[in-house]
Structure formats: C-alpha cells, structure tokens
Specification:
This protein is of the alpha/beta class. About 40% of the residues lie in helices and about 15% in strands. Helix 3 runs parallel beside helix 4 and helix 7 crosses helix 11.
C-alpha cells in the first residue's frame, strides 16, 4: 500500500510516518516549502513539497496513492493571525479530501482532536457522542478543528470513506516544536512553570496514537469518530507522575484559575500584542483547561485495538527524548515507569 501523509514533519504525523514505514508501507509525505525536514532516510519514503492551501500541489501529492492520512494542522493556542488557523485547518482539510475524491482515493483518516468534544459536566466522562457546537468551544484552535471535522464528515459518502480520529494529549519522542502538551514535560524538566490550575487531561502515547491511525484506516467505520487516548489523570498527578518516573523533585504550585487568567492576560498584552510572539501562558490554553476533560476510549480499544500504555511510561519517554535532544539539561535516570492504569479512558 502507498499512503499520503500530510503533516508528516509534525509530532503525530512523524510518529505515524514511522509506524507506516515500520509495517512495510510506502509513504509519500507532503511537507511545506522551507520546512525543517525531520523524516527518516528510508527507500519507502517519498517527500514532496506543497501546501494544503495550494490545490495544484495537493492534487499532485494525492495522485497515485491508495490511502490518505490528513494530519496537517496548526496546533497552537495562539496565532498572530487567527484567520490563518481557520484557513489551514478548515480550508486545508477540504482541499485535501476533495483532491482525494478527484484522484480516486477511496479511504481517508482525518486527524481531529479531543478538544472538539463537548464538556459533559462535572464528574462525567465524555465519549464520541459528546458532539459540541461552535458556541460550546472557546478559542480559535478548538473551533477551527471542529469545523474541519464537520467538513470532513460531510464529504464521507459513496466516493470517499472518511474516518475521524480524536487524539487526546499525546506525549513521547519526536516532539520537536514542542506542542502544548510537550511543553508540560519540558517546563517540568526546566523548572519553568508559574503554577498549575485544577484540571485534568487524558494522557496517551504518541506511538499508540500512530497505531490508532493505522487501525482506523483498516478497521474504522466510515463516518465515525474514534477517541485515541489512554489514561485520565489530573494535572497535579501528571506532575506527581513525572516526579516519580524521573526521580526529580519538582514542586509546581496550584494556582486559582482567576489568578492564572490574570497572569495570562498580562502575558498576552506583553508577548502577544506588543512583541507579536507566542505568550508563555496563552489565554486560549487556559480556557481549554478550565474544566477537566476526561474521556472514555472504549470504542477505539474495542473496534480498533488501540494500545493502552500507562501514562507514566509515555511521560518518561517524552522526558527522556527532550533531554537526549538538547531541550533540557536535567539529569535523571528513569525509575518506576509502571504507572497504575485505569483501563481505557479510566478516570481518577
């Protein structure tokens, strides 16, 4: 099989490309002009230059492939030009899928995010049925991804089978940027955290997310969404788990949401408005973290065979990668990586 992967130089896209190659598939990677290429040297890998907003380059990239993984997106809770987030995430998705239809590609997996789910309320756990409306979601990133997901599912039909996957918070090797989730680990290692708010996330391993993509292509039902995640854990326990698995002793302080939001406003004014660079505390990220987002991953575990690596193992893999690649000078040896698992999407 020959697959096209958009966003192949990103965190999830890179892991997916590696997994596809490891299973003996041919991969065509669509990368943007000027992109820093972080792709393996493999005879089964073909690299083509283009942009999801440039339809001719997308048509060339899609031509002749058997399947499509559309991973490319702007994954950031701040952008100097929010309209660019919508163009890339929404228009880019439609461009790629319409090119797939015109080139006879029969099946596509589209990478969305758990952030498109509606918060189910205190003490409740969301699953794929928690469909949000635009008005339910704060910020441009979440809204653009929901719009992209809706556009993708609208194109599911006779000429193209579309499966949507919704990764939770991935950790692990290869987070070059780093992503907002990877920054949690990196800031822990470098002792650069202003505090944390009382929230929770679902932690998953980036390589398990990659496997989930492949299995979604092979086994996923067209028109369906699948949450790709593993362990529900409070942010406080994320830091506690990092302390345990690294042997380091970091003590971030819990901050009231109002205080954190005030600090984010100040950071936005200085960094975002005056200096035109990404704030250390993006307001959209704070809005996302206002409520714990615990999810039930049972559907993907049963239908796709999604692996369920413990949170501690994934967090340690991310920490080790950041140190090995010069992002942090922290010194540690991995200790207890056998984090207690609560099962698929099991919460604390």
């Amino acid at each position: 099989m020959k697959y096209l992967v958009t966003g192949a130089t990103g965190f999830v896209g890179g892991a997916l490309t590696g997994q596809l190659l490891a299973e003996g598939n041919s991969v065509r990677a669509l990368i943007r002009p000027g992109s820093t290429q972080r792709l393996p040297d493999n005879p089964l890998l073909e690299v083509v230059t283009g942009d999801v907003l440039d339809q001719p380059s997308v048509e060339r990239a899609v031509h002749g492939v058997d399947g499509l993984f559309h991973v490319a997106a702007i994954y950031s809770y701040w952008h100097s030009d929010p309209a660019e987030t919508y163009r890339t995430n929404v228009d880019g998705t439609e461009n790629v899928l319409r090119a797939a239809i015109s080139n006879g590609v029969r099946r596509a997996v589209v990478t969305s995010t758990v952030a498109t789910l509606k918060w189910p309320g205190h003490g409740k756990i969301a699953d794929e049925s928690a469909v949000a409306n635009i008005s339910d979601l704060p910020g441009h990133y979440k809204r653009s991804k929901l719009m992209a997901e809706q556009a993708a599912l609208a194109l599911n039909g006779r000429d193209l089978e579309v499966v949507v996957v919704n990764p939770t918070a991935p950790f692990g090797p290869g987070d070059h940027r780093p992503t907002p989730t990877g920054r949690i680990v990196l800031e822990f290692l470098n002792r650069r955290f202003p505090g944390y708010v009382d929230t929770g996330i679902n932690v998953c391993d980036v390589d398990d997310v990659a496997i989930g993509h492949l299995r979604a292509f092979e086994r996923g039902r067209p028109g369906e969404r699948y949450i790709l995640g593993s362990e529900n854990i409070s942010l406080r326990d994320v830091y506690g788990t990092l302390n345990r698995v690294t042997g380091l002793r970091r003590r971030p302080v819990k901050a009231p949401f109002a205080l954190a939001y005030a600090a984010g406003l100040a950071d936005m004014l200085i960094e975002g408005k005056l200096l035109r660079r990404e704030p250390f505390i993006p307001l959209e990220g704070l809005q996302v973290s206002r409520h714990p987002m615990y999810v039930d991953c049972t559907k993907a575990v049963i239908e796709l065979g999604l692996p369920q690596r413990p949170a501690g193992a994934s967090l340690l893999r991310g920490a080790e990668w950041f140190v090995a690649n010069g992002y942090s000078a922290a010194q540690f040896t991995g200790l207890d990586v056998q984090a207690h698992s609560h099962g698929p999407g099991g919460g604390r």
